[in-house]
Amino acid sequence: MDVTVDAKRGVVYEGIMKEAMAPQVQQGSASGSAGFYETPVTGTKIFVNLGEPELAEKVAQLPSDGVGLLRMEFIVNDHIKKHPMWLIENKHPEEFVDKLAEGLATFCRAFHPRPVVLRFSDFKTNEYAKLEGGEKYESGIKEANPLLGFRGACRYTDPKFEPAFRLEIAAVKKVRNEMGLKNLWCMNPVQQDSRGVRQGP
Predict the structure, then answer these.
(1) Which residues pair with 82 in a beta bridge?
(2) In which domain, by residue range, is 174 found?
(3) Cis amide linkage into residue 63, ω under 30° from 0
């Protein structure tokens, strides 16, 4: 049996509707770069997940409402590559702040004035240990499952990590206050173990 499904309206027609089979006209982006099909207006905002600053300009051309999840770990892993506590101990905290701020600003400039929602650091312990100088600060933390361990917001107020989290805050303040990119928004990852108890070291 031949039918035509109108997924936009949720209607199924008996037979083949010739007008529905006509090819769509492709529309170019505002900048005239890679084209995309004209998108319908929806009641739900469409955001992208993104982590690589080098892709910000390209992805910003897509018809999205902004960045819904920007994982800080991508910038730290790929552009800073050093444990924040190690930089603090070696008296180079500004390296972390400056590189993180520049990475964040790349997204904010590309998507401005659309929001860019940053998730503060959510590294697992074993991932932090792989950063330069990280083994010194992470080796004493024993976890049966790092996925459910000392990560996310439970790290931020711990005395052994709080100074590092303050660097993240300083980078956000630099982007918003010094660079004037107020479209940077923030969210905190709250981690719990399987019993619903917030994990510590």
Answers:
(1) 132
(2) 40-187
(3) no
Task: For residues 117 and 189, give the distance between their C-alpha atoms in angstroms, rounded to a whole number.
Answer: 12
78 falls within a domain: yes
| DSSP assignment string, 158-190 | STTTHHHHHHHHHHHHIIIIIS--TTEEEE---
Kindly compute the dihedral angle of the four CA atoms of residues 146, 148, 150, 156, in this order, to the nearest 10 degrees: 140
Here the CATH number for the domain that contains residue 73 is: 3.20.20.60
Q: Which of 89, 111, 84 is nearest to 171 (CA)?
A: 84
Residue 6 lies in a domain: no
- What is the Cα 108 distance to its own chain's centre? 12
Closest residue by Cα to residue 160 from 129, 143, 138: 138
**pLDDT per position as a tens digit, 93-136:** 999 999 999 999 999 999 999 999 999 999 999 999 999 999 99
CB atoms within 10 A of CB 7: 7
Global pTM? 0.75
Residue 180's region, left for phi above 0, alpha for psi from -120 to 50, else beta, is: left
Residue 17 in any domain: the answer is no
